[in-house]
TrEMBL record:
This is Outer membrane beta-barrel protein. Keywords: Signal. InterPro entries: Beta-barrel_OMP, OMP/PagP_B-barrel. It comes from Spongiibacter thalassae. Residues 12-190 form the Outer membrane protein beta-barrel domain. It comes from the Bacteria. The keyword Signal applies.
């Protein structure tokens, strides 16, 4: 509950600070480095994900991205690696639609129940004000593990506040409907874009 209150406070502060400036069109960056933490809950199990990653725009139409993470989760710990490719499409002077395909691999510290996940997603990036970006995402994921295969939907939303033109902080929530139990995640991150 404390993490939810922190995210709500960040969101309220971001809205209050940024509503006073007129909206100006500007491009989104797809080259950046970031660090983040998230609270992850599945059923009665709760864990914390710490990660670092980035994205590199190969040109205006294609980017690659990846991350390395550590999930401290009941009943064990996981190393998490993800790699992906995406393409942004300009919808308006203030909005992009991002189509992406990502692969994630989770390796447990005990046993050999690796989890492989392939996700196809669509994400909107919209300037709400000159320094506040809103995101909505939806996707389909297929997951394989020693316990079997499963597919399902993933949805999410977030706000990103630019405290300087190249530096931003974000709060995000997401829900995964893959598997027998839904997985909820709420996180915060910091990003430097280039």
């Amino acid at each position: 509950m404390k993490k939810i209150n922190t995210a709500m406070t960040l969101t309220a502060a971001a809205l209050a600070m940024s509503l006073s400036a007129p909206l100006m069109a500007k491009e989104f960056s797809y080259t950046y480095a970031e660090l983040g933490v998230a609270d992850v809950e599945t059923g009665n199990n709760d864990g914390d994900l710490f990660y670092g990653g980035g994205s590199l725009a190969l040109d205006r139409n294609v980017f690659i991205r990846g991350s390395l993470g550590f999930l401290d989760y009941e009943p064990g710990e996981y190393d998490v690696v993800s790699l992906g490719v995406g393409t942004p499409m300009n919808l308006s002077p203030t909005s992009d639609l991002v189509l992406a395909l990502d692969y994630a691999f989770a390796d447990p510290d005990k046993g050999d129940n690796d989890i492989d996940t392939l996700t196809a997603s669509a994400t909107s990036r919209t300037w709400l004000t000159n320094n506040l970006e809103g995101n909505l995402s939806a996707g389909l994921a297929h997951q394989e593990s020693d316990f079997g295969d499963d597919s399902g939907a993933i949805v999410g939303a977030g706000l990103r506040l630019y405290v300087a033109p190249q530096i931003s902080v974000a709060a995000n929530i997401s829900r995964s409907f893959v598997g027998d139990l839904d997985t909820d995640s709420i996180g915060v991150s910091g990003r430097v874009q280039f």
